[in-house]
């Protein structure tokens, strides 16, 4: 009996030693991942995590975060290869990545651009899947300086400061990363709530990409995307792109191409299942946002919060905003409105149509050619009109008022 007890204790000690080693290895790989200055070092840390114990919740949490940044990195490198010069007015936020200028870009065509979007989407899907493996009630705490965590946008194998996640975030939001006050301290302690947040953002971006891929937008691409890729050999480059010394990002010729693009958003549906999936991804984003706030409300600390709750007072160094109970309640109201619209429980009113509203669920589930101008003026939404309860501008106005009016957009981008 005594021998069996010693044997049991020895086995338990062995298990504990292995577990302790696994935890140490994970911590070392996590630190190496976030401190890496080269792609080789970062990928080695990712390999270490992929070989770690998958039952450790930190493993899928960090791998999901890494997959999200790698999806952005892959997109950035593809856009850099083809010489992206974004005027920031295009409707797809990922096109605002701070990609360095490429003096010798490779040619690009419509099918190649669709492949870029598809690869980006697949990377985001992988990130969301990893983050979805993290148990909902687990304790997580990872300290990261976003001004140091970088992605390789130009494909040179280095993770430079001007390719930091902080710089990418500033570009995606349209903010200036080089303000006169200097860069803010963007060190955060990411917890379980932030995993829901990032997973939600992945679904939000997937929905946008799927909406594009659901349609044939080749005419718009061929006739206007030289505003984004002026040296990539697009069909109108030789006629409409001026010499190199006249290519300011806000120049008149680019403004003209933006107008052309809007005019050419008359896109036939070629993959209807993608438009249907876009709706489901938006609903998933709403679900994750609710989980995010549930987790935030359960927090009792106030330690370098990415997104604080009302019980964690202070002005955010990320946004300059403070979160109060009024904003959280208003956000949940906004989520409910969005869910009701996406599920077809309520209808979206149109400024020139009385008595009927747009069934947003039908817009996604029974898609027809998407014409932006005709949707705004009325004819394009007629197939989706129904009788029912309308969500009006007054309803949205009440939510906006709870956020202080113009501040709503800032809160919405932050809250996800």
Low-confidence stretches: 1-24
Number of helices: 15
Shape: globular
How many domains?
2
Q: How are strands sequenced across the largest beta sheet?
A: 7-5-4-8
* Oligomeric description of these chains: single chain
Q: How far apart are the first and last residues' alpha carbons, in Å? A: 59 Å
* Helical residues, percent: 40-55%
Biggest β-sheet description = 4 strands, mixed
Percent strand: 5-15%
Series of secondary-structure elements, N-terminal to C-terminal:
HHHHEHEHHHHEHHEEHEHEEHH
Short description:
This protein is an alpha+beta fold and 416 residues long. The protein contains 15 helices and eight strands.
Structure characterization notes:
- The protein has 416 residues and is of the alpha+beta class.
- The chain folds into 2 domains: 57-310, no CATH class; 324-416, no CATH class.
- Helix content is 53%, strand content 6%.
- The protein has helices spanning 2-35, 39-50, 58-81, 110-131, 165-173, 192-213, 218-224, 237-240, 252-263, 272-297, 325-342, 360-365, 372-377, 393-402, 408-415; strands at residues 142-145, 187-190, 266-267, 347-350, 353-358, 370-371, 385-386, 390-391.
- It has a 4-stranded mixed β-sheet.
- Helix 1 packs antiparallel against helix 2 (39-50), helix 10 packs antiparallel against helix 11 (325-342) and helix 11 (325-342) packs antiparallel against helix 14.
- The longest helix has 34 residues, at 2-35.
- The protein is globular and about 60 Å long.
- The termini are far apart.
- Residues 1-24 have low confidence and may be disordered.
